[in-house]
Amino acid sequence: MGMPPLAVTMGDPAGIGLEMTAMVWQRRHAEPIPPFALYACAAALEQRAHTIGLQLPVRVIATPREAIDTFDRALPVIDIPLAVPAKPQVADPTNAGAVIAAIKRAVADTLTGQTCAVVTNPIAKSVLYQAGFTHPGHTEYLAELAGRKVPGGPFLPVMMIASQVLRVVPATIHIPLASVPGAISVELIVAQARVMAEALQRDFAIARPRIAVAGLNPHAGEDGSMGREDSDIIAPAIARLRADGIEVSGPHPADTLFHAARRASYDAVLAMYHDQALIPAKTLAFDTGVNVTLGLPFVRTSPDHGTAFDIAGKGSASPASLIAAMQLAQRMSDARAGAMANAT
Asked: Measured between alpha carbons, how far is 79 from 313 in angstroms, rounded to an integer?
């Protein structure tokens, strides 16, 4: 029967997710777009397409498998009706239930093999919080849906930003910079690097992944003269990983880690904090970076940008990152299927 379609969620219906998805479908003959089913409000999608001047045939389908036969003629939609009509740029917590339902249904269909991966359009967490959403973000909610616990339990969410030129993971994410030194630990670095190594093998088909670990301080601490974290925390973590047979190097000074020649020496970087990872990732591939959640029992990718409420409904949003997210999800799904087949 071949690979099932991707499951693409609508994200916040007041943001750019609906129109970007419509734009992606319109490009299906010009670019290699994997077949997908969109989990969204069909009426809202049609209205948004009309608003930005797109002629968009929409077909409501009952099961994701129907997307394969439908995709060439119409954009296939698993209909998740909104509570109230969506207005571009006007986020409405009343529609939070539909946003969450789309994610839940997409994950359920992927876990049962009806879809091959989940690609999530951007959500507005602050809007969902107003409706009682209790998770810090997409990642933690996806972990719960997968039956895995978040930090403190057996599942450690690992966010990777991936592009054709760089893969990078921030060890700490949305915390103040002043809190980073106290947040990193040997255990955190070891756990994240192990998840990275496994994912690089299984989902990126890299037989022996090479992971470069960035130092925290300038010059990776300069032998302790600029901070002890590099020698007292990061270096012992690297030693433990090497003892486990994982090919890890560092701690490397971050200021010389991301130029072209150095990028050829590793497959991914484990950075210590958000901006240390995302500044080079977005500088090198601003429009084509993809947010990937590692460690889940299914493939999940997302565009590396937000809801962009300020330009929603104008038709000016670039679908490049969403296209990259779909293409990467397909490649990862193929690699994971191949790894499973080889294992048996």
From this structure: 21
Beta strands 118-120 and 75-79 are: unpaired
What global pTM score does this model have? 0.93
Say if residues 38 and 76 touch (Cβ distance below 8 Å).
yes
The side-by-side arrangement of strands in the sheet containing 290-294 is: 58-60, 75-79, 36-40, 6-9, 118-120, 300-303, 290-294, 158-162, 167-170, 268-271, 210-214, 247-252
Cβ–Cβ < 8 Å for 293, 203:
no
Q: Are 202 and 339 in contact, with CB atoms under 8 Å apart?
A: yes
With cut-offs at 50, 70 and 90, classify the pLDDT of residue 149.
low
Burial (Cβ within 10 Å: 0-12, 13-18, ≥19) of residue 154: exposed
Cβ proximity of 184 and 190 under 8 Å = no
Q: Of 272, 306, 303, whose CA–CA distance to 288 is shortest?
A: 303
> In the chain, what are the domains?
1-154+295-344 (3.40.718.10), 165-284 (3.40.718.10)
Q: What is the pLDDT of residues 297-312, one digit of tens each?
A: 999 999 988 999 999 9
* Alpha-carbon span 122 to 130, nearest angstrom: 17
Contact indicator for 327, 34 with CB cutoff of 8 Å: yes
Q: Is the peptide bond before 251 cis (omega within 30 degrees of 0)?
A: yes
With b meaning 16 or more CB within 10 Å and e meaning fewer, what string describes 40-52?
bbbbbbbbbbebb
Is pLDDT above 90 for 139?
Answer: no
